[in-house]
Amino acid sequence: MKIICIGGGPAGLYFALLMKKQDPANEITVIERNRPYDTFGWGVVFSDQTLGNLVNADEPTATTILQSFNHWDDIDVHFKGQTVTSGGHGFCGIGRKRLLNILQQRCEALGVRLVFETDVTDDQEMAKAYGADLVIACDGLNSRIRTRYEATYRPDIETRKCRFVWLGTKKLFSAFTFAFKETEHGWFQAHAYQYDGDTSTFIVETPEEVWQKAGLDKMSQEEAIAFCERLFADQLDGNCLISNASHLRGSAIWIRFPRIICDRWVHWNQIDGRRVPVVLMGDAAHSAHFSIGSGTKLALEDAIELARCFAAEGPNGIEQVIAAYEKVRAVEVLKIQSAARNSMEWFENVDRYTAMEAEQFAYSMLTRSQRLSHENLRLRDGGYVERYEHWIAQHAFEAAGLPQAAARSSIPPMLTPYRLRGTVLKNRIVVSPMAQYSAVDGVAGDYHLVHLGSRAMGGAGLVFVEMTCVSADARITPGCPGMYTPQHTAAWKRIVDFVHANSTARIAIQLGHAGPKGSTRCAWDGIDMPLDDGNWPLLAASPQQYVPGVSQQAREATTQDMDRIEQDFVRATREAATAGFDWLELHCAHGYLLSSFISPLTNSRTDDYGGSLENRCRYPLRVFRAMRAVWPQDKPMSVRISAHDWVEGGITPDDAVEIARLFKAAGADMIDCSSGQVSKQEKPVYGRMFQTPFADRIRNEARIPTMAVGAIFEADHANSIIAAGRADLCAIARPHLANPAWTLNEAAKIGFHDIDWPRQYAAGKAQLERNLERERQNAAASAMATPAQLAARLLEG
Question: Which of 169, 306, 184 is CA-nearest to residue 244?
Fold first, then answer.
């Protein structure tokens, strides 16, 4: 094959050497506009895992790179005069220029042609001149080729909100160092790491508005560097900061990160009667924020994958090769970009977390991408995690008013106690309210006793009953439970009494009104489909059909309707207190009646209950205040909201923070952070813990406790969420349908045995723990060497 790589960065050089190694007959040319030793930036960072991938792809290159690396294990976080250190992270730093020189030398040794100081202005002319069968477009963040064929690649380029500057220093950092400094203008942060024997990279970053308030937009390069030196004097120990961008003037050294995502990665050209693919690689195809250190990793792994696809398919199947490459890399890159976005947004919003103490702030930073979890941290540095768990437990037991002696040295964060008003939960796991559609005339029966009782005995701290309707016409389906007759109160009291007598769990009720989503069939008979007969009239904030052309038409609620419904909620609240519930939640989410007032998608009223967000929240707040007034003052009340409608023009996470503030002012104790189900036009972005960022924002911006929900399905998720301060409770839904004893089972899985089981089940506890310990030992014995271990062996050599 004849291949040209336009751009002599890591992606183009590495792909060239891999393809030349794969078949020496390949004619490969790398064309770079700069001179051989010109480069920008200072050092690059790889994890041990990435190094392992390089070892497997081309060991001679990996060996040379490894011999040039500065390797460290620790991360230091400097915050509010404290330094928190965690180890076992396995990072390596290398100068970008040194990395490129290694790749250039390996290319030359294999026979790749390197052409420097050539600026490619027309890729088609260049492909024609070289007779190329394949063009690799690796011409960087500002790729001309991507721009030329943007109709094919469909790039989405988003310029982010922070300004940052790449600098260097002769201060040698023994750990990957993050330093946070508060100024009168706002927060600044530094990312620093050593990459060779005498130099470290030192990146300074701050939000755009802080950068402007500090006057950095008007400073010369020298003045800006002096500002940074003064700000981070504690970390620099008298060393200067150095710029390698002397060609830039003034504020031009400060840049904003462009987040790049491409819909497609290949464009086909017709050249001399042949179809020639132009394949994006590296920064031309995607970008990952520097805070996760994956830009160069992604570029090299692009090269590895495309070379692997050629090895599997051969040059005659080039269309299949390109299709396979695009399919595999698009998925893998999206995962990294998702983590990088989480990391980037954490740094963009540092002030969100600055109310935390240094210990929790550092943990939040370490786990910001959601790729590094609690158990992963434990594998890296068990001592750090044990110390932090002890810190979390001490604070939790103190806040719960429990004896400090009970705060043992290491307790999983999800199993620490939690107090809200006068209610103390034994742990942070909640059984979510989950519709079961099994009531008869609104009465909870034996099914509910077994369903809720078994989950109360399964280890969770709090068990929610499903949304309980405040009137017959407030039900979603005929199978929904209610709280509007004496029979309902008695049925619920029976269940509450059972939970209190047979478990140490607390039990909560969620009160709601289905509004425009009522009078439908049970889920298994057609979710959201109207009843064939026996329908009841529907109400909403404004006239609507939830499923256009299918659902019943809901009429706009009048002031008389609203008065009646408010009293229905008040009556149901009083009856919930009579039944003995420990906790009450008001349902204001998922397009039900109160939600229909809040979302602009479903509220077009022109009276005092429509228009601005404050007006749209007016009626739900009115109902909440009336309920709070009759609910026992020593018992908590939470509110479930849809923190994102996932539809343009609907509720956004920004709105959710304001909604939470309004409910907090009205007396709410906690916000249960769900999303969606307001419109059938929604396009949610699913993934593990996908709704946790909403709980994080609301908790740390509105300063109100939150409950995280949505795709939380293992202890590692819950421990990470609680430990990082992203939420105070974790609500687990579907896993509790599969396993009523989810909490007990997950505790055993992570090797935590000091947890109470029902005494009748003690024999099962012992056997489960023995079996899981045997599985762990077998897994450890049969484990194969990982890429990271291969890299470590080379480092030791």
Answer: 169
What are the distances in angstroms from CA 419 to CA 126, 357, 402, 463, 726? Answer: 69, 19, 10, 15, 17
Which pLDDT belongs to residue 797? 46
| Spatial separation of the C-alpha atoms in residues 705 and 660, rounded to whole Å | 10
pLDDT for residue 222? 94
- Other Cβ atoms less than 10 A from the Cβ of 207: the count is 21
Rounded Cα distance between 196 and 186, Å, is 32
- Exposed (0-12), middle (13-18) or buried (19+): which is 595, by Cβ within 10 Å? buried
| In the block, residue with structure tokens 């935390």 | 356
DSSP labels, 488-516: HHHHHHHHHHHHHHH-S-EEEEEEE--GG
Residue closest to 165 by CA, chosen among 253, 291, 40: 253
Distance of CA 722 to the CA centre of its chain: 14
Q: Residue 41's pLDDT is what?
A: 64
Phi-psi region of 131 (alpha: psi -120 to 50; beta: other; left: phi over 0): left
Element (H, E) at 255: strand 255-262
Residue owning tokens 């490894």: 66
Structure token digits, residue 417: 């106690």
What sign does the dihedral 139-142-148-154 (CA atoms) show? positive
pLDDT of residue 783: 60
In angstroms, the Cα distances linking 710 to 330, 396, 499, 528, 548 are 25, 24, 25, 20, 27
Q: Are 31 and 115 in contact (CB under 8 A)?
A: yes
DSSP conformation class of 314 = -
The residues carrying an active-site annotation are 592
> Which pLDDT belongs to residue 315?
60
pLDDT < 50 regions, the chain: 797
Is 682 within 8 Å of 658 (Cβ atoms)?
no
Q: From residue 60, how far is each of 52, 107, 330, 793 by CA, in Å?
A: 13, 12, 28, 14
The secondary structure of residue 552, as a DSSP letter, is P
Residue 425, SS3?
strand
pLDDT at 70: 80
Which pLDDT does position 666 carry in this prediction?
98
Using CA atoms, how far apart are residues 316 and 23, in angstroms rounded to an integer?
14
Secondary structure letter of residue 476 according to DSSP: S
What Å distances lie between residue 433 and 59, 452, 466, 488, 594, CA to CA? 54, 10, 4, 17, 17
d(CA 248, CA 57): 38
Residue 161, SS3 per DSSP: strand
Could you write out the three-class secondary structure of 108-158? Answer: HHHCCEEECCCCCCCHHHHHHHHCCCEEEECCCCCCHHHHHCHHHHCEEEE
